[in-house]
Specification:
SH3 type barrels; Rossmann fold; Helix Hairpins; 6-stranded mixed beta sheet; 8% strand; elongated; binds guanosine-5'-diphosphate; binds magnesium ion
Length: 829
């Protein structure tokens, strides 16, 4: 009976906890373990929750949760022993007394009954397996549809009793045919302890489709790789052990006709039931970025609603809702307050259909086949290729051991080339626009701090950054195209081996590439990596992937100091980041996350022409994020920096310069030419003095000694300091700090080149620029990235860790480059 059925004051001993996943774990952690005694403290018929005492603790459970715990009660026990005593005539036959430990023994025994359901495609040998195991003689036929309803058989092995049910064969678990519905209802209503998924080894691709759906449902299962004799005869090679490791489900070869492997199969059923099986783990079929986002949103809504039955996986319900599954829709409809969920679901389906140009059901089906073909690509070698689809032909080249790499490198090169070359034109237009706005405001506003704030602080700061919007859009155009077409999955596939050398997994590759766009979504994309170790490393090294926010800094400095070799220097930056990431990943793997990783499936979805709509949506989302950042953090930082640099207005030394300028202007002894020259020089000194004495100058000077060995003056120090908010801010800070006189029409690069320190030495040299670019590449990931890491790792410690390690690394690298470079330059000169 169920725990919820025990009345106040009654006792029971736990037989087993049903349900799945997190729920089950929580209940077991509360002390509801097989063989333990539970006392009902209070169970009033309409009261919820119910109060229990278990293992000395008082706990309360919701009625619906208690209904998923099977127990033996005293009355049940008494009834059983009475019937037994009629035959044994034991001495205390009618005393009615029993011992607690006897009750426990009964519960333990009952816990050794395992309910097993056989599920598989028609004609894969389920009934044969059932017959062999249970000794029954059901009709076995070589045509589908023979098993109309479920048959039950019982047998024992190794002290466990198996109650197996032979279910009708199905290809899928959608609700189209009566068989499919029947099997699904059985899984939900009967809650078998373990499912045996019988798979026809001679037709893996089609048979594993059902397996993916069972994975979605999150049932505990064992796969019987049946018709193993056929597989061996065919000469195909199948590494079922490595597939088992990837999907976290034991796979046991069987030949149900002869009984080969069936004992081993049921032994595995026992270890899965007892949760001692070494490879047992729950994996997700990854449906790809777009679909996953919607699935997750629905899953969260279902979770928030809170009325969904514990026996259902919410992820499964979300998938089925998107699939427009009638049964699941009706079920969700029957729950209270689910109208908004269903409405959202309809909206989502429509959006997805427009984006993907196919209905969601097809999209999900394709993704499942992608999962299967990825899994088989790694584990299955066909003796001879039967039929080839265009996807297979393309994959022959693209995922080829040798050819794959040049193709991949070409695509990467093409992507970056296009990002920078094509981006130049719109960049110039925007630059021009920003300048016009600045001039307009300059001409039409009265002099004063407000005008200075608008022109130099806001338009200068934000304008300096907004020009890079086109680059970012183009980069995302490529990334979205590669993702949606299915190529990115192949790239991950061929990178798998290399990634393993870094202690990562092929799946880490996509977030790393995305990191070139923006580290924040990239860090969120690590969710698809199952193994926590790989995931953590991928997250922690992601800031070394040079995101597009650092691009403005490179473009500015290479433009000013490496105009001839701009592309080479850019490439150097990106590859330094990658190289450092490799080294750091290896170190982390060695010292922080040394546990061995579990293998998992790399999906190979069929190729598809991405729709322009889905790509535009992706691009628009990124643009929105970028503009958001612009309006938020960059705007605030610009205003703050401008303010800190603008005040205090008046200083002693400043007044002296002013009177000197006046003096020069009113002088009669100097020629006009001499006059302007002296005034310009005095103005320069005055401005510099003002900047140095401004608040920001003081902060910069305070931290500058720590950065001086890297070749940085106080202005660079200040811009690096403010760049912690977001790296684009480095450029906007420089452009605010280098406003100079509003009369001259120098561009920012020209001003950087011209800037001299007190001794008249240039502040920026190519070596300084290089050191600064490297520093910007490595140091402090922006605030948003740190927040993303804290969120995803669920620990602020990793956020702190990233800050510390990146800043240290940046200092060391820049120091080495600057000092070695200076020595080298001295030698040459
Ligand atoms: P069901 O539809 O899944 O219940 O499949 P059946 O048990 O009715 O078997 C279908 C056919 O496959 C029968 O002709 C069986 O004899 C045959 N069969 C079952 N298991 C095996 C096996 O392991 N190897 C081979 N070669 N044939 C098998
Ligand atoms: Mg059958």
């Amino acid at each position: 009976m169920r725990l919820s059925e025990l009345r106040t004051g009654e006792k029971g001993v736990i037989v087993k906890v049903m349900g799945r996943g997190a729920f089950r774990k929580r209940i077991i952690e509360m002390g509801f373990i097989r063989g333990k005694m539970v006392d009902v403290i209070q169970n009033a018929p309409l009261k919820d929750p119910i109060h229990y005492k278990v293992m000395g603790y008082d706990v309360s459970l919701r009625r619906s949760d208690a209904a998923l715990i099977e127990v033996v009660s005293e009355t049940e026990f008494a009834h059983l022993t009475n019937t037994a005593q009629q035959y044994t005539e034991s001495p205390d036959a009618d005393s009615g007394f029993y011992q607690d430990n006897e009750l426990e023994a009964l519960a333990l025994n009952k816990g050794k009954i395992i309910n097993v359901a056989l599920i598989g495609n028609p004609n894969c040998g389920k009934t044969s397996l059932f017959n062999f195991a249970s000794g029954a003689h059901e009709h076995v036929g070589n045509y589908s549809g023979v098993t109309v309803d479920a048959k039950e058989g019982v047998f024992t092995q190794n002290g466990y009793t198996f109650r197996i049910v032979d279910l009708p064969g199905t290809y899928s678990l959608s609700a189209y045919t009566p068989e499919e519905l029947y099997v699904r209802r059985h899984l939900v209503q009967e809650q078998p302890d373990v499912v045996i998924n019988v798979v026809d080894a001679s037709n893996l691709e089609r048979n594993l489709y059902l397996t993916t759906q069972l994975i979605d449902m999150d049932v505990r299962m064992v796969i019987a790789l049946n018709m193993y004799d056929d597989l061996e005869k065919s000469g195909n090679k199948f590494d079922h052990e490595s597939l088992a490791g990837m999907i976290g489900v034991p796979i046991i070869p069987t030949i149900s006709k002869t009984g080969f492997g069936i004992e081993a199969l049921f032994n595995r059923v026992i270890s899965v039931y007892e949760e001692t099986d070494p490879i047992l783990r729950h994996v997700h079929v990854n449906y790809g970025d777009t679909l996953e986002k919607y699935i997750n949103a629905l899953r969260k809504m279902l979770k928030r609603n809170g009325t969904v039955d514990k026996t259902y996986s919410k992820r499964y319900l979300a998938i089925k809702l998107l699939e427009n599954d009638k049964e699941v829709k009706q079920y969700v409809q029957s729950l209270p307050e689910t109208k908004p969920i269903l409405e959202t679901c309809n909206q989502y389906s429509q959006q997805l259909e427009e984006m993907l140009k196919e209905d969601t059901e097809t999209a999900l089906t394709n993704a499942r086949y992608g999962f299967i073909s990825g899994a088989l690509r790694e584990t299955f070698v066909a003796n001879k290729i039967k039929e080839v689809s265009s996807t297979q032909i393309i994959d022959l080249f693209v995922t080829h051991k040798v050819l794959g790499f040049p193709i991949f490198i070409f695509f990467m090169w093409f992507m970056f080339e296009a990002t920078f070359k094509l981006g130049e034109y719109p960049m110039q237009w925007i630059e021009w626009g920003v300048e016009q706005i600045g001039n307009f405001v300059r001409n039409f506003m009265p002099e004063g701090p407000l005008k200075d704030l608008l022109v130099d602080g806001i338009i200068g700061g934000v304008g300096g950054v907004i020009v890079f919007l086109p680059n970012i859009l183009i980069l995302y155009l490529f990334i979205s195209f590669m993702e949606d077409s299915g190529y990115m999955a192949r790239a991950a596939f061929i990178m798998d081996k290399i990634m393993h050398k870094m202690g990562l997994h092929g799946k880490s590759f996509i977030p790393l590439v995305m990191g070139f766009g923006c580290n924040v979504p990239a860090i969120m994309a690590t969710r698809t990596i199952e193994s926590r170790n790989s995931r953590m490393i991928t997250m922690l090294i992601n800031p070394l992937m040079s995101c597009s926010a650092r691009l403005p800094v490179y473009v500015l400095l290479t433009g000013a100091f490496f105009a001839e070799n701009a592309s080479t220097v850019l490439l150097l930056m990106y590859s330094s980041g990658i190289l450092l990431a490799v080294i750091v990943a290896k170190l982390f793997k060695r010292f922080l996350f040394s546990k061995e990783d579990v293998p998992f499936v790399m999906e190979l979805p069929p190729y598809r022409m991405p729709t322009s709509k889905s790509i535009l949506i992706h691009m628009w989302e990124k643009a929105k994020q970028y503009l958001h950042k612009m309006g938020g953090i960059i705007l605030i930082a610009s205003i703050l920096i401008w303010f800190l640099g603008y005040f205090p207005r008046e200083t002693e030394q400043g007044k002296i310069y002013e009177s000197q300028i006046e003096h020069v202007n009113s002088s009669n002894t100097l020629s006009e030419k001499e006059k302007t020259e002296t005034v310009t020089e005095l103005n320069r000194l005055k401005n510099m003095e003002h900047q140095q004495n401004s608040y920001i100058g003081r902060i910069g000077q305070a931290i500058q000694p720590a950065l001086a060995p890297l070749g940085f003056d106080w202005k660079i120090s200040v811009s690096l300091l403010s760049g912690m908010a977001a790296k684009e801010v480095v450029v906007s800070t420089l452009s605010v700090l280098y406003t100079g006189d509003s009369e001259d029409s120098q561009t920012l690069p020209e001003r950087l080149q011209a800037d001299k320190d007190k001794e008249g030495n240039p502040v920026f040299t190519p070596l300084v620029a290089l050191s600064m670019m490297l520093f910007v590449l490595i140091y402090f990931p922006c605030v948003a990235t740190v927040i993303a890491i804290v969120n995803e790792s669920k620990s602020w410690k990793w956020g702190v860790f990233v800050i510390v390690y990146t800043c240290t690394l940046a200092w060391v690298v820049s120091f080495t480059v600057y000092q070695l470079g200076s020595i080298l330059l001295n030698l040459i000169n």
